[in-house]
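[recover] target loaded
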């Protein structure tokens, strides 16, 4: 059994642990062995501590033996994107700027996973400071897609999606600012959930764009995503943007709701630039829901054409502000060649930040500068309101929206050297962040070349239970989520 433990779901492993068919130590050792065997090819991890993981697993087994297990996550190895704090572990944001930084405290999501007994397992690679769509911008080098090592896993949570797809973790956490959970999930053939803004605490998350960032799970199934969301969601007084709301039993809701639902197809999401194989797979998924009794109707999100411009004004402006603290004096890398305070500032930032981060800082500083704030940033915020209203208007007619997650399957590493070409990879996902909505990507097929394709479901605010039920219903009729890459 140990040879395939790393490809089982949380739900399956929880049963095996509860019945003592396996131990957490056995499971964790299987995941460690798998990581050592395959991560040289994939490079999903920036770091991991084998002894610490086994110590956590041993503590879980002792709790279970004493009849004091903390629930289904107790003893399950969960990987963290390297922008989420875990006390005593490296926290690098995949940047030279934080190459030697060790977190002194737990993020709220980390503390909640520990409280549920999860084994916190490793630091996962990402685009530097979560800025990118391919995990090629990491100071530690690119991560490879487990389905084809010559291709990207998506980004910025590429390490989180690749590690899960390759069996190097049972589930992972990522962060999503413009699609950074959903797009890599689609490209790696796993499920990725971006919760409603404010549902999951951002305390302990390295900030990229504070009004857009959200932490969420990557899992094999919708049921697993519901289990993870139930563990990490909820109000947190340490996060001023955290929302107070009653939480349903996400797992029960996801596995018992059967619809049918009213589903909208945004006409703006099916046009030029959409890969034919992606389009065909998504159309087949739409046909499934129609056959399931769902009402399918076309809707319009008329301000979609402004999403990319709006996003890259707001996101870069907030990045410029958030990253100002990394100056070599208060935080981060300090240049050894600096001769005075000003020199420290300029040289430390020049050496510590990569090209994409510098590009976004420059863009953000420009749009916030005197004489341009009203013309760019203020106007973008007004357009953002119109984009959110488009979604809310659509929800007067439908319960959720169905779209492609990514306009294309995984592309070759190094293929998209033009920054704008990379930005366009998130064309179907950024509107969700601007509107603060929940959305998930669920596997819906493969290309003729064997590359995964993802279907995106976008819901009303705080309607994660319905989205997870829709994904679960689809999964039960298809075997896409059970396919694993041959490594």
């Amino acid at each position: 059994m140990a040879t395939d433990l790393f490809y089982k779901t949380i739900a399956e492993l929880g049963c095996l642990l509860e019945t003592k068919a396996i131990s957490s130590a056995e499971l964790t050792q299987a995941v460690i062995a798998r990581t050592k065997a395959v991560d040289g090819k994939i490079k999903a991890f920036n770091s991991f501590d084998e002894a610490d993981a086994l110590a956590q697993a041993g503590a879980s087994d002792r709790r279970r033996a004493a009849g004091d297990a903390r629930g289904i996550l107790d003893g399950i190895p969960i990987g963290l994107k390297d922008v989420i704090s875990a006390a005593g572990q490296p926290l690098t944001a995949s940047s030279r700027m934080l190459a030697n930084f060790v977190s002194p405290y737990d993020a709220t999501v980390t503390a909640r996973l520990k409280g549920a007994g999860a084994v916190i397992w490793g630091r996962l690679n990402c685009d530097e400071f979560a800025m990118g769509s391919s995990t090629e911008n990491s100071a530690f080098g690119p991560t490879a897609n487990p389905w084809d090592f010559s291709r990207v896993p998506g980004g910025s949570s590429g390490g989180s999606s690749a590690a899960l797809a390759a069996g190097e973790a049972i589930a992972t956490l990522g962060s999503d600012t413009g699609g950074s959970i959903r797009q890599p999930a689609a490209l790696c053939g796993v499920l990725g959930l971006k919760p409603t803004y404010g549902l999951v605490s951002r305390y302990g998350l390295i900030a990229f764009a504070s009004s857009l960032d959200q932490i969420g799970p990557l899992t094999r199934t919708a049921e697993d995503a519901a289990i993870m969301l139930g563990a990490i969601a909820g109000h947190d007084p340490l996060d001023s943007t955290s929302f107070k709301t009653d939480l349903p039993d996400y797992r029960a809701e996801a596995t018992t709701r059967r619809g049918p639902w009213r589903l909208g197809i945004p006409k703006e999401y099916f046009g030029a630039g959409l890969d034919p194989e992606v389009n065909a797979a998504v159309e087949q998924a739409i046909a499934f829901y129609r056959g399931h009794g769902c009402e399918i109707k076309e809707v319009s999100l008329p301000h979609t054409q402004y999403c990319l411009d709006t996003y890259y004004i707001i996101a870069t402006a907030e990045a410029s502000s958030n990253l100002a603290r990394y100056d070599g004096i208060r935080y981060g890398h300090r240049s050894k060649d600096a001769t005075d305070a000003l020199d420290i500032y300029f040289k430390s930032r020049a050496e510590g930040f990569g090209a994409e981060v510098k590009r976004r800082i420059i863009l953000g500083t420009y749009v916030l500068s005197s004489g341009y704030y009203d013309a760019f940033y203020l106007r973008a915020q007004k357009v953002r309101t119109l984009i959110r209203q488009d979604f809310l208007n659509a929800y007067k007619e439908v319960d959720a929206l169905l779209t492609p997650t990514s306009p294309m399957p995984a592309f070759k590493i190094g293929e998209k050297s033009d920054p704008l070409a990379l930005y366009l990879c998130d064309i179907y996902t950024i509107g969700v962040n601007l509107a603060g909505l929940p959305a998930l990507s669920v596997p819906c097929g493969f290309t003729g070349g064997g590359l995964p394709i993802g279907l995106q479901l976008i819901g009303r605010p705080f309607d994660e239970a319905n989205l997870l039920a829709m994904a679960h219903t689809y999964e039960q009729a298809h075997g896409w989520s059970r396919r694993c890459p041959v490594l």
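[recover] notes: The first strand starts at residue 45 and ends at 47.
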